[in-house]
Amino acid sequence: MMIQTVGVVGAGVMGSDVALDLACNGYKVILKDIDEAAVRRAKEKIQSEFRLLKMVKPKTKPLSLEEVIERITFTTSYDKFGETQFVIENITEDWDMKKKVYLELAGVCGADVYYAANTSCVSITKIGALMPRPERVIGMHFMNPVPMKKLVEVIRGEHTSEETIRVGKEFLQSFDKVPVVVNDFPGFVTNRVLMQMINECVWLIQDQVAEPQDVDKIFRLGFEHKMGPLATCDLIGLDTILYSLNVLYDSYKDPKFRPCPLLVKMVDAGYLGKKAGKGFFEYRL
Ligand code: NAD
Question: How far apart are CA 201 and CA 262, in angstroms?
Fold first, then answer.
């Protein structure tokens, strides 16, 4: 099957990046969010990130901004989802919200569409079980920022067919990604480890063991991490980290995933990280 048009649901941090990367690589994209303001912000973000990409990767992105924007339909409706061959869902990390979206997608997309869930921790098997053709559901855990990161953790749900894995891998390779296939278990490989590490660093701040900049400096200089765990937390979004820890905690019933109260308090205060201008560090919006 030729993939030409991709439906991207959720136009936040990840959805807007996925749309930009796909459009830069020749795909037509229908970028859909439930929130008009999110769609507007996504268009602005895509424009400024494209300019940045041009500077960082000048040779690999020969298109003009106009050509890229022209390939993306920014919308709050499912009207054009009948034209898609592949859908990548990137909505909020909340099971009830995701469930609603998949049931809607099943009603508006063609029978042959493949569905990829870009999720930090939600079970791909549980999503597959909602759909009329569960063998066509796969997990694609993209890394942030998407156009700069080659790795995609591909998750094989209980029902995912080998054909879907093959199509998914070929699709990812077509826009220069490197897929690594893992089996479905909450948090997969990346986030089962990363979320615990970030959470423990928040405990360090709560216990006043060190300031955020010093925690990050220890990881950068001591372990050669490109980015410290608290800057990573800000980049991902504190709300997304909290949602993910809650999913892990509920799934394993293991106290090691219990979200640090300081994380909960910061989310309650609206300190969601880079996207909000403030998290463990401050950002200009
Ligand atoms: P975000 O909060 O930035 O964006 C989520 C978007 O989904 C919002 O714009 C919201 O309006 C939209 N949305 C909510 N309900 C919707 C609906 N019914 N229909 C359409 N849109 C809807 O979140 P994000 O950081 O982009 O994360 C999205 C997904 O990607 C999550 O599952 C997250 O776990 C996963 N993820 C995030 C990162 C990261 O670094 N932020 C990395 C990998 C994966």
Answer: 11
- Output the CA 118–ligand 1 centroid distance in Å: 8
Q: Tens-digit pLDDT profile for the chain (285 aa)? A: 799 999 999 999 999 999 999 999 999 999 999 999 999 999 999 999 998 888 887 665 568 899 999 999 999 999 999 999 999 999 999 999 999 999 999 999 999 999 999 998 899 999 999 999 999 999 999 999 999 999 999 999 999 999 999 999 999 999 999 999 999 999 999 999 999 999 999 999 999 999 999 999 999 999 999 999 999 999 999 999 999 999 999 999 999 999 999 999 999 999 999 999 999 999 998
Helix (H) or strand (E) holding 40: helix 36-56
Tokens representing residue 221 in the block? 């200089």
CB 12 less than 6 A from any atom of ligand 1: yes
Q: Does residue 142 have its Cβ closer than 6 Å to ligand 1? A: yes
Of 126, 136, 141, 278, catalytic: 141
Q: What domains are there in the chain, each with its CATH number?
A: 5-183 (3.40.50.720), 192-275 (1.10.1040.10)
The span from the CA of 105 to the CA of 109, in Å, is: 6
Q: Cβ(33) to ligand 1 under 6 A? A: yes
Structure tokens at 137: 């559901």
225 noted as active-site residue = no
Backbone phi and psi for residue 150, each to the nearest 5 degrees, phi listed first: -80, -35
